[in-house]
């Protein structure tokens, strides 16, 4: 019997848009602007950039190396590279973390669907921030509507993933990512040309280190992890679909640059407008859903701008959600031999169930708390502050300490097809062995509250 060829990306552009699509998401468009706002602006961005390129890039290399070398899902990859060893825990952590992130990410994805529809309803856009805050809180705490929206969002992502890599993820990313780029550029231009926007631009590009808070550095590191989709096998899984002739160094560098560009563009689209309308940049997580509609209400053509912004958010969230789903689906099809369709349905059902719990925890189930957090915040906290750093730590230790250097070099240079300077390779190895593990441990301990700064 002829074994069917494993699915994979068909083109280089396809790989780039899919990886960038995974990285660019709610992390860039919602989290990054408010973190920049909370942490004093340009100085925070500089530190973030330093982490992305010094620390996270080598971690992305590791994930690509593990994935491409084995051509398998997270579990399969670890089984091939280190059979019957503790390293298999990378597989366990990845699948568990996927479900954790999927649950609350789907809920926020559902909110974006709702806000697209809401943008067109008369009376929604108002300059009254109290009313907008009430609208948002009332919406997220109601039992039915956000849950339905969450299922629509999750369902859309599941549909894309059921098409596979070439005909699903790659095909849609190729359309969605350029659209996303175009929309965010238009919005950034609109925001920057508002009267009074220069203060916001200044805030983004003129560093004032005295504005940094004691935990800003760690916030920047955590954001870099989340934004680049590192630490839970997303890049291992996508890497396993990358052909041997492609340079994973190039793909990593380009997609990290793209992710950074999107974050900066999101900052440009949001912060100058925030300043132009005299709102505080340190508004926090409500920035997108409460403050932005307030801004749109005061712009000519606000309805269209509002809808366009939430479409952007939806598209960005979708291309990230599918990468989270694919980690689990690849595991189920390859390890448990389920068909892709069954695997997608099963993942949808489990993620939908946990998503429902997260959604209800903003209202009906808000009484159920652990460590003072509702289910939504608990999933978010556990995934971002514990599981991602733990997974990332294991992966980077694996390539740094367990893998043979020759294999690492072979994978990074495609068997010598591309050259890599000796110093660069030494730098990568140093980061994998020492720099990254130490820094990640730091974030992990901080996340758990085991160490405090100052
Ligand atoms: N990076 C995406 C964002 O910024 C979210 C995401 C997708 C993610 N896959 C991930 C985060 C894997 C952590 C790990 O929205």
Structural descriptors:
binds tryptophan, 0% strand, mainly alpha, 18 helices, single chain
Report on the structure:
It is built from 18 helices and no strands. With 454 residues, the protein is mostly helical. α1 crosses α12, α2 (26-38) packs across α12 (248-276) and α3 packs parallel to α10. The longest helix has 34 residues, at 302-335. Bound molecules: tryptophan (TRP). Tryptophan is lined by residues 22-23, 25-28, 101, 226-227, 229, 231-232, 234, 320, 323-324, 388.
Spatial shape = globular
- Helical stretch tally: 18
User: Which structural class best describes the helix and strand composition?
Assistant: mainly alpha
The SSE string, one letter per element, is HHHHHHHHHHHHHHHHHH
Helix-strand blueprint:
Blueprint: H1 12-23, H2 26-38, H3 42-70, H4 74-81, H5 89-119, H6 129-141, H7 145-162, H8 165-192, H9 198-205, H10 216-227, H11 234-239, H12 248-276, H13 291-297, H14 302-335, H15 340-360, H16 375-402, H17 405-412, H18 422-447
Helix pairs in contact: 1-8, 1-12, 1-14, 2-10, 2-12, 3-4, 3-10, 3-12, 3-16, 3-18, 4-5, 5-7, 5-14, 5-15, 5-16, 7-8, 7-14, 7-15, 8-12, 8-14, 9-12, 13-14, 14-15, 16-18
Please provide a brief summary of the model.
The protein is built from 18 helices and no strands. The chain is mainly α and 454 residues long. Helix 7 (145-162) crosses helix 8, helix 7 (145-162) crosses helix 14 (302-335) and helix 14 (302-335) packs across helix 15.
């Amino acid at each position: 019997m002829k074994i069917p060829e494993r699915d994979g990306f068909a083109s280089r552009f396809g790989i780039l848009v899919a990886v960038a699509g995974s990285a660019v998401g709610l992390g860039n468009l919602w989290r990054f602007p408010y973190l920049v706002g909370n942490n004093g602006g340009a100085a925070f961005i500089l530190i973030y950039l330093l982490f992305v390129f010094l620390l996270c890039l080598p971690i992305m290399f590791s994930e690509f190396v593990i994935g491409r070398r084995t051509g398998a899902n997270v579990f399969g990859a670890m089984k091939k590279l280190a059979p019957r060893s503790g390293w298999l825990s990378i597989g366990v952590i990845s699948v568990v973390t996927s479900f954790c992130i999927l649950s609350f990410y789907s809920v926020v994805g559902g909110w974006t669907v709702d806000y697209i529809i809401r943008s067109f309803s008369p009376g929604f856009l108002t300059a009254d921030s109290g009313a907008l805050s009430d609208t948002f809180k009332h919406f997220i705490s109601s039992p039915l509507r956000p849950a339905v929206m969450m299922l629509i969002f999750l369902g859309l992502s599941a549909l894309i993933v059921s098409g596979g890599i070439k005909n699903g993820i790659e095909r849609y990313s190729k359309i969605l990512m350029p659209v996303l780029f175009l929309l965010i550029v238009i919005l950034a231009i609109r925001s920057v040309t508002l009267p009074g926007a220069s203060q916001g631009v200044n805030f983004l590009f003129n560093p004032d280190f005295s504005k940094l808070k004691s935990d800003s550095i760690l916030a920047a590191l955590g954001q870099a992890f989340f934004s680049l989709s590192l630490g839970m096998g997303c890049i291992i899984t996508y890497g396993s679909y990358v052909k041997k002739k492609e340079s994973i160094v190039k793909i990593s560098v380009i997609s990290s640059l793209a992710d950074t560009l999107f974050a900066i563009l999101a900052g440009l689209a949001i912060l100058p407008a925030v300043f132009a309308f005299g709102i505080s940049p340190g508004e926090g997580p409500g920035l997108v859903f409460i403050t932005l509609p307030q801004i749109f209400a005061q712009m000519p053509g606000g309805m269209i701008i509002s809808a366009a912004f939430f479409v952007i958010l939806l598209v960005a969230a979708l291309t990230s959600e599918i990468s989270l789903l694919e980690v689990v689906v690849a595991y189920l099809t390859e390890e448990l031999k389920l068909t892709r369709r069954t695997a997608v349905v099963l993942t949808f059902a489990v993620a939908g169930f946990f998503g429902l719990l997260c959604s209800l925890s903003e209202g009906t189930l808000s009484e159920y708390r652990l460590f003072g957090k509702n289910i939504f915040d608990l999933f978010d906290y556990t995934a971002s502050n514990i599981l991602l750093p733990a997974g990332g730590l294991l992966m980077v230790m694996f390539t740094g300490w367990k893998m043979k250097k020759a294999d690492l070099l072979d994978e990074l240079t495609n068997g010598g097809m591309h050259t890599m300077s000796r110093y660069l390779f030494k730098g990568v190895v140093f980061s994998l062995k020492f720099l990254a593990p130490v820094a990640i441990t730091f974030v992990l301990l901080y996340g758990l509250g085991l160490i405090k700064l100052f």
